[in-house]
Amino acid sequence: MSGKIIYFDNNATTGVAPEVRAAVLPFLGEEYGNPSSMYRFAGTSQHAVQKARAQTAALLGAKPEEIIFTSCGTESDSTAIFAALRARPEKKHFITTRVEHPAVLALGQYLEKEGYSVTWMGVDEKGRVNLEDFARALGRDTAMVSMMYANNETGNIYPVAEVGALCRERGVPFHVDAVQAVGKLPIDLATLPVDYLAMSGHKLHAPKGVGALYVRRGAPFRPFLRGGHQEGGHRAGTEAVPNIVALGTACELAGRHIEEENTRVKALRNDLQRRLFEKIPDCRLNGDLDCRLPNTLNISFRNVEGEAILLLLDQHGICASSGSACTSGSLEPSHVLRAMGVPFNYAHGSVRLSLCRYNTQEEVDFVAGVLPEIIARLREISPFKD
Ligand SMILES: *Cc1c(COP(=O)(O)O)cnc(C)c1O
User: Can you tell me the distance from the alpha carbon of 369 to that of 355, in angstroms, rounded to the nearest whole number?
Assistant: First the structure.
């Protein structure tokens, strides 16, 4: 497909930044040295990986030696959780939330089968967790806590500093899935009480297939991949130099654009939100209006089918998502909206629009024109009435 695409699905994946593509090209060509080799030819690869590690660390306020490159956000989440659990095998209690991405959700379900007791933190109607619940859930047997920084479906931002402080007080390792937050929110791990933090390249304009995991110095860790000495012995395997260069470059760019993300992109999102609510009756915002990512808009339209909305949007070249891409294909409303108690006749008609720095006012104008017509048309023919 080519021509005019309006890409409003940046929480699912993002386009590769032109600067990232340019930085990677030499490493898909003449610069193919193995960073572990001793001769000068490999020095370029070696330095490129070092530079990327410094760029990634800088975006997070971490030290370069605390960054491990991985293949994706899912691997980073899995690595952190298994590493921490295996380092304290006698503890059998795991705490997470009901609104996690499947990368953590499915792990929690797996741990339950493996004999762990899992506390699934609920959320209120805006998708917010309750800190007192966390404080109560932490016990002597708690092996670790894993919570997302920002929700991929609603954009809700979670109280990482507060939960981290509770964990630290009790000496419990704390992992944060920050895949949606990195590049959209300023993060400073020098002050944030977090032991592990996962991020992914393709959510911030690097290609798919690369991620990073922050491991605070001294945090318990058991490597899964053993072999060579790459990544300080945390993850064996020859470094994916082009991907790593891409991630580092994307991190540096993200740092430079974070201000724009929170001003221009946020204003576009707010404009789109205001106009949709003005023109469309019977819709509701999913998420916490006061504590949301600047780029994300999740709306439910009463008595219409989310999938039908997406199909009609697609006919106009508009890419959006109904809830989470990983759960589409099933007609169940997303686990996030269910956890928030969104009424059935609304949950089915939910659409997520997620913007990025490449989106324009013209695109917002177009979507704000088309979407109300689509909803009106679908409501005319809707078999659902309540
Ligand atoms: C996309 C996403 C992931 C998974 O990252 P991949 O790189 O696609 O494996 C994990 N958590 C959140 C919150 C995400 O949005």
Answer: 17
